[in-house]
Write a structure and sequence with these properties.
The chain is mainly alpha-helical. The protein has helices at about 5-10, 15-35, 45-50, 55-60, 65-85, 95-110, 115-125, 130-155, 165-185, 190-205. The longest helix is centred in the middle third of the chain and has 27 residues, at about 130-155. It is elongated and about 65 Å long. The relative contact order is 0.11.
Length: about 220
């Protein structure tokens, strides 16, 4: 079961030039697969987009499945970096609304194509590649933790009740986001995404602290 991971490790670039070549192949694969899906993109298309040969590709990736797993991980890095930037020091309701708008603006700029870079891949690969499914699940776990940290910051700032289950609320928020992204991709409109995020934030507000009242904390 762990053989693909070992194969990838054995092909780790030993020079900066090799690392750049591997990254170029991987990023091109990420872009093409985001646009058309993992099943539709061929290795020849990836090679043509990067100007590399099959021998170079197989030097860094054991096979097509190995490349797809690496794409899942790379897309996860991209998404999480973007989310960290957007969430940043977020600790209030206005800032949370700004995060909501940030997500919607990204999807709108893409014409509602592609959906979530990780979610769309997970939907394609979960039943056919267990390692890809595990990689996607790991990304979602990190994404949930990032949202939970944000909610805990709002607890610390006195916006959310201390007894709120921030982990579960983060999971619900992520689930709403993923559902909204899927429907936005399918309908080619951001309306479902806006509705999903608005509903998620409304649910979070059910745990808000009344203005003028300091939440009790157990020390």
């Amino acid at each position: 079961m762990n053989q693909p991971e070992t194969a990838t490790a054995e092909r780790a670039p030993s020079t900066s030039r090799g690392a750049a070549t591997r990254q170029r192949i991987l990023d091109a694969a990420c872009d093409l697969i985001f646009q058309r899906g993992a099943m539709a993109v061929t290795l020849d298309e990836i090679l043509a987009a990067t100007g590399t040969s099959k021998s170079q590709l197989y030097h860094y990736f054991a096979d097509r499945s190995d490349l797809i797993r690496a794409v899942v991980a790379r897309q996860g890095e991209r998404v999480l970096d973007q989310q960290r930037l957007a969430l940043g020091d977020l600790d209030g309701w206005e800032a949370l609304g700004g995060w909501r708008d940030f997500v919607v603006d990204i999807v709108e700029a893409l014409g509602c194509h592609g959906g979530c870079p990780v979610g769309s891949l997970a939907d394609e690969m979960a039943e056919v590649d267990e390692q890809a499914r595990i990689e996607a699940a790991s990304v979602f776990g990190q994404w949930q933790a990032l949202l939970a940290d944000t909610l805990r910051a709002m607890v610390a700032a006195g916006h959310i009740q201390p007894q709120a289950d921030t982990d579960r609320l983060a999971l619900a928020t992520l689930a709403s986001l993923q559902g909204g992204l899927l429907l936005a991709k399918t309908t080619r409109t951001t309306v479902p995404l806006e509705a999903a995020l608005d509903a998620a934030i409304a649910h979070l507000r059910a745990f808000s602290v009344e203005p003028g009242r300091r939440p009790r904390t157990n020390r």
